[in-house]
Amino acid sequence: MVAILIWAVLAARLERWHVSGPVAMACAGIVTGLLVGPDIGTDLNTDIAEKTAELILAVLLFVDATEVRGGFLAGERGLVGRLLGIALPLTIVVAFGLGVLLLDGSSWAVPLAIACVVMPIDFAPAAHLLRDGRWPRRVRHTVAVESGYNDGIFSPVFAFALLYLSQSHTEDLGTAVGAALEAAGIALLVGVVIGAASGALVWVSVRRGWTRTSGVRIVMVLVPLIVYAIATPLGGNGFVAAFLAGIAYKLCRNARADGQTDIPAAELSAVEDLATTTSLIMWFVFGAVGVLVLEIGFQWTWILFALLALTLVRLLPVLISLLGSRLPWRERMGLGLLGPRGTSSIVFGLLAYNAMNDDDADIAVYVMVVVVLGSLILHGLAMAVRSRHAHESGSEPHAEAAH
User: Fold this and answer.
1) pLDDT tens, 114-137?
2) What letter would DSSP give residue 130?
3) Which burial class, exposed, middle or buried, applies to 219 when counting CB atoms under 10 A from its CB (0-12, 13-18, 19+)?
4) What distance in Å separates the CA atoms of residue 322 and residue 332, rounded to the nearest whole number?
5) DSSP E strand stretches across 72-131
6) Looking at the domain 20-392, which fold is it?
């Protein structure tokens, strides 16, 4: 908490040095991890840590689903549909296949879970990329929309893999699939009903002047917490329910609102601030967890998997999904290369660490740390410095692509 407070009062100054909140928290976590030592692993492997991570993920997924600007697919239905409907499933398949070859998991569910850990994109540690005029606006807008939905789509697959692992491989695949579908069904019911009801109530209340913006902000903070608290005891997946609640809330909040498709920024501010704070906590934990990687030592196959996950495992499925489109080659490469990893990968990684046996947990946290650290260097620091040098040299940003 102290580290977050210090960053908050120095945020503007640190950003001038390209030190974002995630980078600052990761550095603070590394220092803490070195002081605490490998005992940090014991602290993370508890029910309290697991539930806390799930609750944080529920808030993050709800925010992701509600803050996408410009409607459900934000005016990029073709591109976003290709990325989410074709590239994302291919990404899971490719990452899973590589995991089977390069990772020494005790079950097929281990590389499947790890694929869901390392592949969701998140622009929190590299927000400058969405403002970088060297990339066409269409590319930046499309990946921003994709990042709002992809972690929610990965979530059911991830939950299924962990559910299978939690059964200690004693159940057959059919039983595991049945249990996963039941959990997903409960999540769907709870998330959609509560999200839609809350959104509709807010719409009516705002239209009739029964509440103010401050009241709506409180509603948006409470919805993901209530959804998680109801779905989990019923046997549903709490964070999947929160994601679905976010989609339903947004659709019903703006029902018949004269073309209005976005939730007003003033209503989003409180839940976004909550998501930012919890994300910073996760980045601090990420830095501390890095100590575990030092304890494990050099594992070249795990590192190779992480490097491929950062590059080709995203790029190739994206390029395949864009076959037949009229998108220029440069924009296709941009969509494939702009894939930073962040908070979602950290939370998924911590949940996997908590759910797996010791050997598999080491693989999951090791790969997660290497991928996220590599993304910080590649998408965060390196691209930020390159952008700054391009600006100082007076080079003009590329013209925006026409829609």
Assistant:
1) 999 999 998 877 777 777 777 788
2) G
3) buried
4) 7
5) none
6) Na+/H+ antiporter like fold (1.20.1530)
